[in-house]
From TrEMBL:
A GO term for molecular function: signaling receptor activity
Source organism of this protein record: Caenorhabditis brenneri (Nematode worm)
Annotated Pfam families: ANF_receptor
Name recorded for this polypeptide: Receptor ligand binding region domain-containing protein
Top-rank taxon, per record: Eukaryota
Segments crossing the lipid bilayer: 545-571
Keywords for this protein: GTP-binding, Membrane, Nucleotide-binding, Signal, Transmembrane, Transmembrane helix
Chief localization: membrane
GO cellular component: membrane
Length: 577
């Protein structure tokens, strides 16, 4: 922290305007028929990344989400009296560039809101600067670190990303859901794998999850924790061989869709997709088994996304069936990803590149002009939702007076909603689902609920594939009244029918979730040395095979002893004669 403050102080004292990376975009007049005097222009400063993790947070494949969100807002009746002007600065998550851009946004351009850099450390820097000058900051991208929910340090930072750890600042995190899942099935011996990247996103997610295990005193033995590399097969092979010899429950994290697909291929190549293994991907992107592309031949009915096993190009890559089979051996613990308005999601995926190139964005950089028209950035939907959330909050200030809507003490409380959908501001809040006249408006990342620490309070779900290879949610993990509540989503055919971990019959499970549930039955019923206590069985159910074998061995030993004693008696009698 001292380093950050020193950097800020240095730039404040010796700040010089350097506009080489600055891209100015003209005002967007959203409603041409309104009178000029009744409208206000909202200046939006955007600290973007163009060359950093392009497939996930690149402005060329994500930036179109901003004008699309504004368009959707106006269709829903929000922000009718406002126009929007965008000032984009490609900071590339560099701390020095972030400070320079932040000071220009605040001191020279006097923007109304800042869309922060999509990287955690850069967002911390921008948020600290904004807290000094009292400007709201919207967070998106790789910003799931738990400390970003500290409202004392970052009082004006709002994100629609959940955090990965339970802490005093937020009671529900990915780590807590993972701990509850392991506890439910008594999986106590695990491996943790994650893909390496320059941003250390998965590394930090795994650190937060591991810290949660320790904080909650969860009886979890992490036998191996290791990095994997997308383009280093030799090192990855060594890691996987080590995992094979030590664990069968594997928690893993990937940053890109290429890594997700690579993992499934690697598991298949190393023969780690048998019934002995459970691969659980930890995610907070509302994607689960999906990929954000318009090339898919089929779409998941719940999320509206393309399955991970389909190739990322017009032609097949020959790996579809391998990845598809491997995916049936995988679970995903992710934020609820059900999108109600799937038609708009398809519209967004098809038009997001066009939106960033067209007015009002007018992005004319090489990256924007050469962007792939088939794949939307991984965090584009989160950018859409956080801009949508700002537009709602802006409207709920009930004023077009800058002295009111620019007052963070008035604006920031409008972001907050509760699980019951009651805002703490001056309006009746919702979960990004109700507009002014109570019509249903869908978010692009599922249900969004913002807590008092200005971060997302999420419903995590455990996903698998059913018999039709469609994504299905098995379990909800929610935090209610200071307790983690686990809700099983697959109904039983009768109250008397139950199955150890899931309260429904084997027949019902196979009808509804055949492919995965048959495998899960064998996983849970099978005794695997590496797993220890597998599921919440009774003592007899869990150890009956060993007990029966032990009894048989004892009986055999007793028979042998008896036979031996008889033989010795006979020999003694013969020797006496």
């Amino acid at each position: 922290m001292d380093v950050i403050w020193k950097v800020l102080l240095l730039f404040i004292l010796f700040y010089e305007v350097d506009g080489q990376n600055q891209t100015f975009i003209p005002t967007y007049n959203g409603t041409a028929n309104s009178t000029a005097g009744s409208r206000r222009t909202i200046k939006v400063g955007i600290a973007a990344a163009q060359q950093t993790q392009t497939g996930s947070i690149g402005w060329s494949v994500c930036g179109g989400a901003v004008p699309l969100a504004i368009e959707k807002l106006k269709q829903a009746g929000y922000a009718k009296n406002f126009d929007f002007e965008y000032i984009v600065d490609y900071t590339e998550c560099d701390l020095g560039s972030v400070v320079r851009a932040g000071l220009k946004f605040i001191k020279e351009l006097n923007v109304d809101v800042i869309i922060g850099p999509p990287c955690a450390q850069a967002l911390r820097t921008m948020s600290l600067l904004a807290s000094i000058y009292r400007k709201p900051v919207l967070g998106w991208g790789f910003v799931s670190e738990s400390d970003l929910s500290d409202v004392e340090r970052f009082p004006y930072l709002t994100t629609v990303l959940p955090n990965s750890q339970i802490s005093k600042f937020c009671v529900f995190r990915l780590g807590f859901a993972a701990a509850k899942m392991l506890q439910q099935y008594r999986w106590g011996r695990i491996a943790m794998l994650y893909y390496q990247s320059d941003l250390d996103y998965c590394s930090k997610v795994m650190d937060d999850v591991e810290a949660t295990f320790n904080d909650l005193d969860t009886p979890v033995n992490i036998v191996i924790k290791a990095e994997m590399y997308l383009n280093d097969n030799e090192t990855t092979d060594i890691v996987l061989q080590s995992v094979k010899s030590r664990a069968r429950i594997i928690l893993w994290c990937s940053q890109t869709v290429q890594e997700k697909r690579d993992y499934l291929i690697k598991m298949s190549q190393h023969d780690m997709i048998t019934i002995e293994y459970v691969h659980i991907m930890l995610s907070m992107r509302n994607i689960a088994f999906g990929v954000q592309t318009v090339l898919g031949k089929n779409l998941f009915t719940q999320s509206g996304l393309t399955p991970i096993w389909e190739s990322f190009s017009e032609v097949t890559d020959g790996m579809e069936e391998i990845v598809k089979h491997a995916a049936t051996r995988m679970l995903v613990l992710d934020v609820n990803s059900e999108v109600t308005d799937k038609s708009y999601l398809q519209y967004m995926q098809k038009n997001i590149i066009k939106a960033v190139r067209s007015p009002p964005m007018n992005c004319s950089t090489v990256d924007c002009l050469n962007a792939n028209n088939t794949i939307m950035g991984a965090y584009a939907r989160h950018l859409f939702d956080v801009v949508y959330l700002y537009g709602k909050a802006l409207t709920m200030t009930n004023s077009t007076d800058p002295a009111v809507y620019d007052d963070v003490d008035v604006l920031v409380p409008q972001f907050i909603t509760s699980f019951e959908g009651r805002g703490v501001g001056s309006f009746t809040g919702d979960r990004c689902g109700l507009n002014i006249d109570l019509r249903r408006i869908s978010c692009m990342t599922g249900e969004v609920v913002i807590s008092t620490n200005l971060t997302r309070m999420s419903i995590f779900q455990l996903y698998g594939l059913n018999a039709q290879y469609d994504q299905a949610a098995y379990i909800n993990f929610t935090f209610i009244n200071d307790k983690m509540v686990l809700t099983k989503l697959i109904p039983a055919t009768s109250p008397s029918q139950s199955f150890r971990a899931f309260p429904y019959s084997t027949k019902t499970r196979r009808q509804q979730f055949g492919t995965f549930m048959d495998t899960l039955d064998r996983w849970i019923l099978r005794f695997v040395d590496f797993l220890g206590n597998l599921a919440p069985f009774s003592f007899w159910e869990q150890y009956r095979i060993l007990i029966v074998v032990a009894i048989i061995l004892i009986l055999l030993l007793m028979v042998l002893i008896l036979v031996g004693c008889c033989c010795m008696i006979v020999v003694d009698e013969q020797s006496r004669r």
